[in-house]
Amino acid sequence: MGKNLFAVLMIGLLAFAFACSKESGGTTALSVASFEFPLESTDVATGAEVYAEFCEGCHPGGEAGDGPKIAGDMETPAELRWRVRAGGDDMPAFGPNKISDTDLEALLAFTETFGAVRR
Ligand code: HEC
């Protein structure tokens, strides 16, 4: 009995937390730590296309534009994945509906070419 009640409470709590995280715009609730896994993609060509479509406008060639310079920042893959998924004050968030997980890895491989990220 006690155990069942606990399980029901936990499920309720999780559902509530999930609903709240969606309400606040979703991905900003994600932590950098949840993106910590090795960068394995070497698909620079696809990454260049993704960058041209979603990033180039504000970080032209990795340099400053409407956004800051990111070339040479040498962020960890987790930090860059989080930044793309969570956005910033003036940077939009890009969910998997815009940039798939596979494309995100390719994007990282491309940004590695100008030192925005390190493996
Ligand atoms: C509409 C303009 C805009 C677009 C599009 C954009 N960014 Fe940004 N980006 C910014 C701004 C502005 C910041 C500064 C942080 C903030 O807004 O909170 C930023 C910050 C960053 C940072 C952190 C830089 C630092 O020094 O802290 C990284 C990395 C980054 N962007 C990468 C990307 C990538 C990769 C893409 C494409 C998926 C992208 N940005 C698309 C505007 C943009």
Describe this protein with a few key phrases:
119 residues; 0% strand; Cytochrome Bc1 Complex, Chain D, domain 2; binds heme C; single chain
Tally of structural domains: 1
Distance between the termini: 50 Å
Could you spell the SSE succession in H and E letters?
A: HHHH
What is the makeup of the main sheet?
none
**Uncertain regions spanning at least 5 consecutive residues:** 22-27
Principal-axis shape: elongated
Give every kind of bound small molecule, once each: heme C
Overall average pLDDT: 88
Question: Fraction of residues in helices?
Answer: 40-55%
Percentage beta strand: under 5%
CATH architecture: Orthogonal Bundle
Fourth-tier CATH superfamily name = Cytochrome c-like domain
How would you characterize the overall build of this protein?
- The protein is 46% helix and 0% strand.
- It binds heme C.
- The site of heme C has 21 residues, from α3.
